[in-house]
Design goal:
Length: 213
């Protein structure tokens, strides 16, 4: 039996680096709250497949698709790629949240393509201040956890190359650290992904405590 997830919010935005378990917990929370669940990755793939032109710097959306041997690049370059994708996805994520917030059905939207700076978007900020839209960053424990999750989920076509897997995990960890720092500077609660069994409860507590404070 699924434990009901308290819902004073209408849209819950979960973000974090790849390999933190945010997709799984987002699905759990969506089911428990009687709502829907949207992966920002699906939205990104739709935009990329449609070859859309974004309001700014469209080429950054295609960095990981068009850069030859992208996973052989230094972790610092991959980190900038992650940040750029999250930045250029902001208008698309914003309009989905703003459109959904007036409905009666709660939504959990999650992904590594969410920028923490979205919380200060002038369109969304009134909803954030009212507690209708809430944000939470799911943080990784460390490099080893990210590598383990990548291999377990068989993400990518480079998992037979341990050096490339390690470099990918290095980039994910750097992105994780960047997201955590940006979240804390913007007052967004940060929740460690482990232990996973209690992650949904700890997210609930974190977004409630933030509103209470």
């Amino acid at each position: 039996m699924t434990t009901p997830f308290p819902r004073p919010w209408r849209v819950l935005v979960l973000f974090g680096a790849s390999g933190t378990g945010k997709s799984t917990v987002a699905r759990q929370i969506a089911i428990a709250s009687g709502g829907t669940w949207l992966q920002v990755d699906d939205l990104r793939l739709a935009l990329q497949y449609s070859r859309v032109t974004l309001p700014g710097q469209t080429d950054r959306l295609y960095f990981f698709e068009t850069t030859p041997e992208v996973w052989t690049l230094p972790a610092a370059d991959l980190l900038l790629g992650f940040i750029d994708v999250a930045t250029v996805m902001t208008p698309a994520v914003r309009v989905v949240i703003d459109s959904h917030v007036v409905t009666d059905v709660p939504m959990v939207i999650e992904g590594d393509g969410v920028s923490p700076f979205l919380i200060d978007d002038p369109v969304l900020r009134p909803w954030v201040d009212a507690g209708v839209v809430r944000f939470c960053c799911v943080a990784a424990e460390g490099h080893g956890d990210l590598v383990e999750n990548m291999v377990r989920r068989e993400r990518g076509d480079h998992l037979d190359d341990h050096e490339r897997v390690a470099r990918h995990a290095d980039a994910n960890l750097a992105f994780n650290d960047w997201l955590v720092a940006a979240s804390r500077s913007h007052g967004i609660p940060v929740v460690q992904s482990r232990p996973f069994d209690s992650l949904a409860h700890r997210i609930e507590q974190a977004i409630t405590d933030t509103r209470s404070g």
